[in-house]
């Protein structure tokens, strides 16, 4: 009895994303930088757990490796969830719908934008020539992944995926937990070296544990950009904007009014806590 | 023509149509008059007049809109669910699904029931809007005179 092979949707997906585990996981077409991010985080934390934690667990507190492990697990889980899930890709218009749009224009290509009234304010819906549809408000087309993404924030090479409506929460969790992790690991490495240097001197401490110096250096170099990004996204989230909008397009107050869910601050954070 | 303004309220033309092999397809657009939340226009497309009555159609769309409104409403339990998910590093979603996903499943079930009981016997098929990215509701008027369900015929509607 021959088994009929079913064609999965991901096998005929029109965008440039790559799929793994029979379509359960998806990334951007070139996830190389994401592997670098993973290697940096896992490598630095491995050195931290191998060299700093045994020393600090005895000299300071047993809570140090516990907190480090919790932060590491949270950061890694948030990173994997951001990198491997759907950012909010809007499927391309089916042939029939694309034909209907063209038929409505009597054979000519559809206009570049269509204006709709969102709460009485005019908002332009742009026509996407690749996806053959009028993009919903706040959606944007990612040229790297070749998809329209809903509430498009940006394409993040470090995370190896677009950041959009469906994975923005885990992206924010990743950035914030990574800043805490970087600061924590840096503090642990410096504490280890300082405590070791008290007895034997700085040079001896560095010689005994060069990994701590390496960990401290890596954390020091990366913490500024990660902290800056965390602060920037906290600002964006609290003002209900995306990176794409902040860059320059949506400066008009009327558009912000049209999009804001409510004037209450709690509604702004609804996007983060409620799903 | 220079002014491409299409107000999105309940009285505006929200449907476009095109004939295909399976039959005429009608597209019900989103209603943005109250904001960017998921809501579809309830205006009755004239092409359906001979097959479905206005009240049935409007009832279906209104129920759909209610489902989506419930999906997007956040109350105390949704906030707690979100906080718990964050605290468990999102591992909780291996066992459960999100509030929104639960409601999307209800929407799919509602549409399947409506298709089976009301629309398919009259030669009309409603496509779940999630398959079109929650942008449009695609309604197919099936040409087959026996009005059989399109799901039984796998060459007719392929969702890609």
Number of helices of chain B: 3
- How are the strands of the biggest sheet of chain A laid out side by side? 3-8-7
- Helical residues, percent of chain A: 55-70%
Radius of gyration of chain A: 24 Å
Number of helices of chain A: 9
Give the total of beta strands of chain B. Answer: 4
**Largest interface: chains, residues each:** A-B, 47 and 42 residues
Main beta-sheet annotation of chain A: 3 strands, antiparallel
- What is the molecular shape of chain A? elongated
Strand order of the largest sheet of chain B: 1-2-4-3
DSSP strand tally of chain A: 10
Question: What is the N-to-C succession of helices and strands of chain A?
Answer: EEHHEHEEEEEEEHHHHHH
Description:
Chain B: One of its GO terms (cellular component) is endoplasmic reticulum membrane. The complex is a heterodimer of chains A (275) and B (160). Chain A is an alpha+beta fold. Chain A is 55% helix and 13% strand. Chain A has helices spanning 32-59, 63-84, 95-104, 168-200, 202-208, 210-238, 243-249, 253-259, 265-273, and strands spanning 18-20, 25-27, 89-90, 113-118, 121-128, 133-134, 140-142, 147-149, 154-156, 161-163. In chain A, helix 1 (32-59) packs antiparallel against helix 2. The longest helix of chain A has 33 residues, at 168-200. Chain A is elongated and about 85 Å long. Chain B is of the alpha+beta class and 160 residues long. Helix content of chain B is 32%, strand content 12%. In chain B, helix 1 (54-72) packs antiparallel against helix 3 (99-119). Chains A and B meet through helix 2, strand 3, helix 3, strand 4 and helix 4 of A and strand 1 and helix 2 of B.
């Amino acid at each position: 009895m021959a088994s009929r092979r079913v064609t999965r949707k991901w096998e005929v997906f029109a965008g440039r994303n790559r799929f793994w585990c029979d379509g359960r996981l998806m990334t951007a077409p070139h996830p190389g930088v994401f592997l670098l991010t993973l290697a940096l985080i896992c490598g630095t934390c491995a050195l931290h757990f191998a060299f700093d934690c045994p020393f600090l667990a005895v000299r300071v507190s047993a809570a140090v490796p516990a907190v480090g492990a919790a932060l590491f697990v949270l950061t890694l889980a948030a990173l994997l969830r951001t990198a491997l899930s759907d950012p909010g890709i809007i499927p391309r218009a089916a042939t029939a719908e694309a034909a209907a749009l063209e038929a409505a224009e009597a054979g000519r290509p559809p206009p570049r934008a269509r204006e709709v009234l969102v709460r009485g304010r005019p908002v332009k819906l742009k026509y996407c020539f690749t996806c053959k549809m009028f993009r919903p408000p706040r959606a944007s087309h990612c040229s790297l992944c070749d998809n329209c993404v809903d509430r498009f924030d940006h394409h993040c090479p470090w995370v190896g995926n677009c950041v959009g409506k469906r994975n923005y929460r885990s992206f924010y969790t990743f950035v914030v937990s990574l800043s805490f992790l970087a600061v924590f690991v840096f503090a642990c490495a410096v504490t280890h070296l300082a405590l070791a240097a008290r007895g034997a001197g700085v040079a001896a401490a560095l010689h005994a544990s060069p990994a701590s110096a390496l960990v401290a250096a890596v954390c020091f170099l990366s913490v500024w950009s990660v902290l800056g990004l965390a602060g920037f996204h906290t600002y964006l989230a609290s003002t209900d904007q995306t990176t794409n909008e902040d860059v320059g397009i949506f400066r008009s107050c009327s558009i912000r009014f049209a999009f804001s869910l409510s004037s209450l601050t709690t509604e702004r954070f609804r996007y983060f806590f409620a799903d | 023509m220079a002014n491409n303004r299409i107000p999105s309220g309940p009285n505006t033309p929200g449907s476009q149509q095109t004939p295909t092999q399976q039959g005429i397809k009608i597209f019900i657009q989103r209603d943005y008059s109250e904001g960017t939340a998921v809501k579809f226009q309830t205006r009755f497309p004239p092409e359906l007049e001979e097959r479905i009555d206005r009240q049935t159609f409007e009832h279906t769309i209104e129920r759909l809109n209610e489902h989506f409104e419930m999906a997007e409403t956040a109350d105390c339990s949704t906030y707690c669910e979100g906080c718990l998910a964050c605290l468990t590093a999102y591992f909780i979603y291996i066992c459960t699904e999100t509030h929104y996903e639960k409601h999307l499943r209800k929407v799919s079930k509602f549409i399947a029931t409506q298709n089976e009981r009301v629309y398919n016997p009259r030669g009309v098929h409603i496509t779940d809007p999630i398959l079109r990215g929650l942008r449009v509701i695609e309604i197919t008027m099936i040409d087959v005179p026996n009005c059989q369900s399109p799901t039984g015929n796998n060459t007719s509607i392929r969702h890609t």
